[in-house]
Amino acid sequence: MKGLIDIHCHILPDLDDGAKNMEEALKMLKMSYESGVSTIVATPHFHIGRVIAEYEKCNSALEKLKLAIEREKLDIEVLLGSEIYYTNDILKKVSNNEIHTLAASKYILLEFSPWDEYGKLLQAVNETYSSGYIPVLAHIERYACLHDNMKRVDELYERGALLQVNAKSVTGDNGRKNQRFIKKLMKNRAISFIASDGHDSINRVTSLNKCFQYVSKKYGGDTAEKIFCDNPRYIIENRQSPM
Description:
By secondary structure, the protein is an alpha/beta fold. The chain contains 9 helices and 10 strands. Strand 1, helix 1 and strand 2 form a beta-alpha-beta unit.
C-alpha cells in the first residue's frame, strides 16, 4: 500500500532523541518510503526541562533534510510538527509561534507522562480545544489512567480529542498489555491515527507496512485506509475532521 501518512516521527537530525545525524535520517526515510509512506510529519520533542527543539532550528533541519531527499531522489514529503509535552502555559507558546503545530495546521500533538492522572489529560483537552486547536493525544496506549476505563476514553473523544497509537503497540511488539488495550480501542472505533513514533532505523523504526497489513487483515482494508491515509490527510489539509 502506497500513500500512507506518518504524523508522529522523530526524523529530523540532531534535535532530540531521534535521528542523530543526516545519515540516520536518510536511513529512516528510506525505510518509511519502502513501507509505503508518502508523507511524514516530523515531530521533534518540545518538553520544557528536558528537550526543546527550537522553532528556527527545526526549520533549518527540515531544509537540510529536503536537500538530502532531493539528492537521493526520494519521492517522499516531510512536513514540520512537534510532539509537545503538556504544561499549563504551553498553549501560549503555540499561539506565539514558538512551537510548530502539525503541518502548520490547527492540530497539535500532545504528550503526557504515563503516570499522569486523568484530570490532567481532560484539562489539557478542554483547554486546547477551547483555544481553537484540535488535540491529538500521542501514543494513548501509554497512559495508565485510561486502561480498563473506556468511559474516560469516550469522554476525551467527546471533548474533541483525537487518539494516536504507535504501530509497534498495535502489532504487539510493545507488549501484550498495550495490545489488549488497543484492541478495545479499535473495537470502539476510538483510534484516529496509527503512526510510527520512529526514532531510529534499528529499534524504534519508521516502517508502517507490517502494521498496515495487520490492521487490514484484522479490521478490514477500509478501516486501515481511513486510519493510515484518510484521517491524517485532514491534518495535512488543515480541515476539521469528521473522525
